[in-house]
């Protein structure tokens, strides 16, 4: 599925300064029963966000109206655990277009890139600065500049560059996905398969 | 140039390399289950394309399925709908489908090896992170997301940058009651849950050489819990003996040709790894976890570490202990438990049931414990009956359920209630993994058995030394 193009994103951010946020927290397994990619945002961080009777947990950041924006900032080792792409879908469906952390689990990072959510890995020091800036002013804005591979805290002017491979960057900028690419080289694939016994 | 085992298999599957981008990697065999596939099939439908090589794809129902009364219609309408979707998709695309009640049905990572779908030197993927299990056979096997499931269905390829390589050596002799699960939990406790992120692991050293295929599967299965994409072990005689004659392994001349390739699958003597770590087998004790990620494990006779001694965020550590309602410095032995779960793709094979039975034989299930014993597949279930293990279980007051993922991820009815403690042979102790509010202690089948008969965390060595009254 082709997705939204990503260029420069300027937005306030939602802070979640917890380490090892796993995909079972992002979306618990009991909400994986859909056969379509719809409505996963409602259950993003379900058990941190709601009590078992469905009432919101006031102290959880997504229930605090002073925080909002299209950027989610998480602690180290974000997205570990299960390969469920539903976790990335939930993040997207809720309205986030970018996740910032000092370290991402592999599969989650790949899943994000495959659906048009940009994972931005920063140094632990810069992550700290972001958390501090949001603490000082919840409305503080971050700028994610994909063409220049730069993330900046607008209020302080501090910035850092981030990595992304050229192929994925091009995909994100243009909203292309891997299947488009693979279907285009199907002849090569079929040739390879002919020489590969089952 | 000298190559690692991983290089040999990866490089021979690259269809195309993209400069400063990923490799296009050909996938030999693709396993599909009901939870991560429906949106991928929908993607194919929207593009108006068919599965390119249905004969390389195999589907089973496991994540969502009940472990009782499988002959009856599935009660939960959402689960039933997902199972129906998989069956319809498999039929529409000519994919073999081993649904509920089928004699080859079971957990995707148990039935792959059982039926010879898993072979050395192959690339194997599935929309489930514990696909790393199949690495036990010297295959490159790893979990993928649903977008990638769609890629494999439509083009038999995925696009991934080549991971870095890490070798983990464990040498020496394992102590009494130390199982492959303990070896893996020990390594994860040392490396942390992100210690191998970005790497593909090869396990080497006599501990793995001497391990059974089942044990190797348990170890490779848990590779993802240290953050690795996957883990693998070089194939040897044990591997070839295990797979020979299984339904989907090559036969006759094809077998000979395959053997020629498989025998080249080892890391060359001077092959270089990006990272290498070594552990001494004698340091490993039966393990148990006390927190909310698989890296939070200790030898069972130890106390819960003090917050000041850990590396990583103290706030996260304390939050985790609070969830478990444990205090730093407390011993694990003696802690009361409520549930025992024996099963999952980590420890749901016949060897695991044998280990469990060895402890409970002649004893009785503790009254305060609810035990869910769930075989990984119908074939495992059959072996449990044939070997007389079922009689031992029944006599001790246990009941055997029908195969599936069950309480490993609690998508079906097998949910641990909020606040309760479960000693579980599965792979993840995340908050709520086994049910909202559930508290999980990961351990081996021996530790699970010791807990099941005593009703509390118990060192299995104690029971092994105790005379059992016949
Ligand atoms: S048993 Fe658990 S880890 Fe294994 S495939 Fe099933 S849900 Fe995944």
Automatic annotation (TrEMBL), chain A:
Domain Aconitase A/isopropylmalate dehydratase small subunit swivel: 6-123
Regions that span the bilayer: none
CDD domains: IPMI_Swivel
Pfam family, one: Aconitase_C
Enzyme class: lyase
Secretion signal, residue range per the UniProt entry: none
Keyword annotations: Amino-acid biosynthesis, Branched-chain amino acid biosynthesis, Kinase, Leucine biosynthesis, Lyase, Transferase
Pathway(s) served: Amino-acid biosynthesis; L-leucine biosynthesis; L-leucine from 3-methyl-2-oxobutanoate: step 2/4
Reaction(s) catalysed (UniProt annotation): (2R,3S)-3-isopropylmalate = (2S)-2-isopropylmalate
An example Gene Ontology molecular-function term: 3-isopropylmalate dehydratase activity
Gene3D superfamilies: Aconitase, domain 4
Catalytic activity, EC: 4.2.1.33
Subunit structure: Heterodimer of LeuC and LeuD.
Family under the similarity heading: Belongs to the LeuD family. LeuD type 1 subfamily.
Its biological purpose: Catalyzes the isomerization between 2-isopropylmalate and 3-isopropylmalate, via the formation of 2-isopropylmaleate.
Record's protein name: 3-isopropylmalate dehydratase
Record organism: Flagellimonas halotolerans
From TrEMBL, chain B:
One Pfam family from the record: Aconitase
Record Gene3D superfamilies: Aconitase, domain 3
Classification via CDD domains: IPMI
Pathway: Amino-acid biosynthesis; L-leucine biosynthesis; L-leucine from 3-methyl-2-oxobutanoate: step 2/4
InterPro entries: 3-IsopropMal_deHydase_lsu, Acnase/IPM_dHydase_lsu_aba_1/3, Acoase/IPM_deHydtase_lsu_aba, Aconitase_4Fe-4S_BS, Aconitase_4Fe-4S_dom, IPM_dehydratase_rel_enz, IPMI_cat
Record-listed E.C. numbers: 4.2.1.33
Claim: Lyase is one of the keywords in the record: yes
Molecular function GO terms recorded: 3-isopropylmalate dehydratase activity
Reactions mediated catalytically: (2R,3S)-3-isopropylmalate = (2S)-2-isopropylmalate
PROSITE patterns named among the record's database cross-references: ACONITASE_2
Residues that, per the record, bind [4Fe-4S] cluster: 345, 405, 408
UniProt domain Aconitase/3-isopropylmalate dehydratase large subunit alpha/beta/alpha: residue ranges: 7-455
Key word S-adenosyl-L-methionine present: no
Cofactor(s) for this UniProt protein: [4Fe-4S] cluster
Keywords: 4Fe-4S, Amino-acid biosynthesis, Branched-chain amino acid biosynthesis, Iron, Iron-sulfur, Leucine biosynthesis, Lyase, Metal-binding
Free-text remark on how the cofactor is bound: Binds 1 [4Fe-4S] cluster per subunit.
Binding partners and assembly: Heterodimer of LeuC and LeuD.
Function: Catalyzes the isomerization between 2-isopropylmalate and 3-isopropylmalate, via the formation of 2-isopropylmaleate.
Annotated family: Belongs to the aconitase/IPM isomerase family. LeuC type 1 subfamily.
Name of the protein this chain belongs to: 3-isopropylmalate dehydratase large subunit
Name of the gene: leuC
């Amino acid at each position: 599925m082709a997705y939204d193009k990503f260029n420069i994103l300027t937005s306030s951010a939602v802070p979640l300064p917890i380490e090892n946020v796993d995909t079972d927290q992002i979306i618990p397994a009991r909400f994986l029963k859909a056969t379509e990619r719809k409505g996963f945002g409602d259950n993003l961080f379900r058990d941190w966000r709601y009590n078992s009777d469905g009432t919101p947990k006031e102290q959880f950041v997504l229930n605090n109206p002073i925080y909002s924006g299209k950027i989610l900032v998480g602690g180290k080792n974000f997205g570990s655990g299960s390969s469920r792409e539903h976790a990335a879908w939930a993040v997207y469906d809720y309205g986030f277009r970018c996740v910032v952390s000092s370290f991402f689990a592999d599969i989650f990072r790949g899943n994000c890139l495959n659906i048009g959510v940009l994972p931005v890995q920063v140094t632990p020091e810069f992550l700290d600065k972001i958390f501090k800036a949001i603490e000082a002013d919840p409305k503080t804005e971050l700028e994610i500049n994909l063409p220049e591979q730069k993330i900046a805290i607008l209020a302080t002017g501090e910035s850092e560059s981030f990595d992304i491979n050229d192929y994925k960057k091009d995909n994100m900028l243009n909203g292309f996905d891997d299947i488009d690419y693979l279907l285009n080289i199907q002849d090569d694939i079929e040739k390879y398969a002919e020489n590969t016994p089952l | 140039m000298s190559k690692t085992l991983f290089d040999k298999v990866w490089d021979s599957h690259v269809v195309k390399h993209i400069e400063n981008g990923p490799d296009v990697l050909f996938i030999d065999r693709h396993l599909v289950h009901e939870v991560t596939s429906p949106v991928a099939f929908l993607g194919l439908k929207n593009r108006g394309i068919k599965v390119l090589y249905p004969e390389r794809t195999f589907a089973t129902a496991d994540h969502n399925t009940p472990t009782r009364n499988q002959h009856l219609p599935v009660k939960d309408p959402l689960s039933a709908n997902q199972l129906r979707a998989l069956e319809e998709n498999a039929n529409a695309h000519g994919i073999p489908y081993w649904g509920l009640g089928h004699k080859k049905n079971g957990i995707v990572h148990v039935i792959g090896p059982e039926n010879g779908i898993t072979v050395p030197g192959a690339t194997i993927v599935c929309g489930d992170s514990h696909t790393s299990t199949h690495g036990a056979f010297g295959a490159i096997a790893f979990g993928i997301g649903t977008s990638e499931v769609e890629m494999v269905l439509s083009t038999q390829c995925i696009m991934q940058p080549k991971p870095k390589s890490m070798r983990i050596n464990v040498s020496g002799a394992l102590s009494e009651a130390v199982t492959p699960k303990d070896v893996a939990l020990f390594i994860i406790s040392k490396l942390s849950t992100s210690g191998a992120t970005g790497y593909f692991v090869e396990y080497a050293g006599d501990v793995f050489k001497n391990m059974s295929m089942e044990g190797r599967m348990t170890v490779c299965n848990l590779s993802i819990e240290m953050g690795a994409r996957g883990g693998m072990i070089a194939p040897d005689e044990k591997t070839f003996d295990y797979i020979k004659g299984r339904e989907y392994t090559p036969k006759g001349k094809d077998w000979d040709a395959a053997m020629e390739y498989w025998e080249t699958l080892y890391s060359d003597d001077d092959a270089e790894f990006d990272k290498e770590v070594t552990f001494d087998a004698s340091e490993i004790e039966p393990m148990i976890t006390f927190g909310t990620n698989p890296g939070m494990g200790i030898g069972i006779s130890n106390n819960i570490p003090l917050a000041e001694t850990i590396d990583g965020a103290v706030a996260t550590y304390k939050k985790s202990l609070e969830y478990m309602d444990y205090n730093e410095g407390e011993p694990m032995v003696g802690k009361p438990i409520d549930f025992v779960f024996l099963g999952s793709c980590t420890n749901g094979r016949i060897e695991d049931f044998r280990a469990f039975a060895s402890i409970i034989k002649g004893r009785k299930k503790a009254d305060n414990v609810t035990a869910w014993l769930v075989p990984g597949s119908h074939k495992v279930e059959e072996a449990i009956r044939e070997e007389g293990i079922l009689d031992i279980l029944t006599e001790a007051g246990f009941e055997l359920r029908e195969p599936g993922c069950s309480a490993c991820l609690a998508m079906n009815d097998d949910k641990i209630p909020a606040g309760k403690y479960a000693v579980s042979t599965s792979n993840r102790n995340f908050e709520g993994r086994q049910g909202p509010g559930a508290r999980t202690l990961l351990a081996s089948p021996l530790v699970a058995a010791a807990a099941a008969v005593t009703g509390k965390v118990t060192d299995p060595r104690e029971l092994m030394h105790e005379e059992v009254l016949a």
